[in-house]
């Protein structure tokens, strides 16, 4: 237990609507029996899933914005709720986040310097000239020129610059764990690569990253390990190279063959056929006790509907699918 | 190949207190009948504004200072609004950006589709319903969808309803603005295939605006690369991907992440502002092949091979 930074132990999360009338019965199982860990050696772990798969719930659980319905989340051996009760400041300093939208995280009335100064003040990182020097250093570390950034208002900067200021803030705070929730989905392709390179360099500063994304391409680019999540369940995980080159779960395979290849000579040969009637059945998610992918899986068997398969280890990968038993 | 749409030196500006924002600044472009033309470029390069300008669906403070758009020989921009309205949907239809979120949540799909048809065609409700059904069928959606509310469908399905709506009156050209943004990959694939079918099965010309180069590679016949309100390069998809000429196209392609290569290269520098484009070639501050002439003169879009044009001094451009 001591050599892991963050551990999820059978974490489930159910959102219940305490409403009235017909709304009161709605409950959404956002996560079901999710277990994984990040080692204390700096690494980039990618969590890949489509919208509504529970990626952001994991992110909120780590930040302590939600409590798990069951199961435990341990950070350096102690549960997150305990950290927040006793050592909140320390926890916040060690676990930081970069959000998806670089436009909404800034207060438009203040200069952008403020996000950096607030970090310095809040965590007593430095003072006076030293603080100034650190701010310059951290901006330069992410490829920004301090003289062009400091003193500006958010609306004067582009999305790419704002998102990189968020990166420089991370550089300044040097947390142990960084949760990056779709950090590049709103950036242009030409800036995306630069941003991801900086994120990857953070490993050398001793920062582990949980990279949350829907995009396998960028996950492949920066991650050491990949986890595939679907409808609140982790279906496959393993070293990036293995998962991408040799996907085991039918869902992973479907994802990989659906990615458009930037090469007009390698266009799709097959077609996606989706049965609308089947898709609708998925919406009542609480009743699904078996594999959540059952409805869309071409290899679906009877028992897939009732039971969720145990985790099976094949070489370096782990997969939850009855095809591998 | 017949030219179905021709854009000549089109400019679309926005009036602001700081001066004109020249979002589209002199674009010339040909669209051939029965092709899928992709318009690619980064955010803010004027892709969407170009389409809005062609269809004349912009609102003030946006205006067109000059330029011509010919559709089958008709000068669209000088048509009176009443006349132009008759062409929209019947001849030229449009799937706006984020249209999957544009459906009214409390009205059934049926009513929303038929409402659109009736406002553009003089037919009965029953005939309109027939048209809506056949449009849904052509994008591979079952007829039950008409009875549903938008929230019963996933984002990708709603997007296909919007594509179906644009097909109701058998248009000749469909303009699709970012038709697959915000969808998960499987839905993206399905919707791209739907757009491909429009050309293959129904012979509809498609103009697709998208920032993702990989999508262009999948279905487009030709690609037009835009940067800073200008067209930098036009060519067939195969040519553009196998031998990009313009340094910006090269940069754009090397920045596309893919499962086949693990090295990515971004383009250094930042996209310029439409209030003040750089002098000379608009890409020169970010270009690694920059010469002295690039700062002073603006290269013109010139045909360098048959069907292949590029605006760059490395290939002439004078």
Structure report:
- The complex is a heterodimer of chains A (325) and B (318).
- Chain A is built from 13 helices and twelve strands.
- Chain A has 325 residues and is α/β, with parallel strands linked by helices.
- The two termini of chain A are 29 Å apart.
- The radius of gyration of chain A is 21 Å and the shape is globular.
- Chain B has helices spanning 47-55, 81-87, 109-120, 125-138, 155-167, 185-202, 213-219, 237-242, 247-254, 292-296; strands at residues 3-16, 19-32, 36-40, 62-63, 68-71, 74-75, 92-95, 173-177, 205-209, 222-227, 230-236, 302-305, 308-310.
- In chain B, strand 1 (3-16) and strand 2 form a beta hairpin.
- In chain B, helix 3 packs across helix 4 and helix 5 packs parallel to helix 6.
- The longest helix of chain B is centred in the middle third of the chain and has 18 residues, at 185-202.
- Chain B is globular.
- Chains A and B meet through helix 7, helix 8, helix 9, helix 11 and helix 12 of A and helix 6, helix 7, helix 8 and helix 9 of B.
List keywords for this structure.
heterodimer; A: 325 residues; alpha/beta; Rossmann fold; 8-stranded mixed β-sheet; 4-stranded antiparallel β-sheet; 12 strands; B: 318 residues; 2 domains; 5-stranded antiparallel β-sheet; 24% strand; globular
Distance between the termini of chain A: 29 Å
Shape of chain A: globular
Name of the CATH first level of chain A: Alpha Beta
Return the CATH architecture of chain A.
Answer: 3-Layer(aba) Sandwich
Major interchain interface with per-chain residue totals: A-B, 44 and 48 residues
- Superfamily (CATH H level) name of chain A: P-loop containing nucleotide triphosphate hydrolases
Number of domains of chain B: 2
- CATH homologous superfamily grouping of the largest domain in chain B: P-loop containing nucleotide triphosphate hydrolases
Uncertain segments of chain A = 281-286
The oligomeric status of these chains comes to heterodimer
The CATH topology of chain A is what?
A: Rossmann fold
| Number of individual domains of chain A | 1
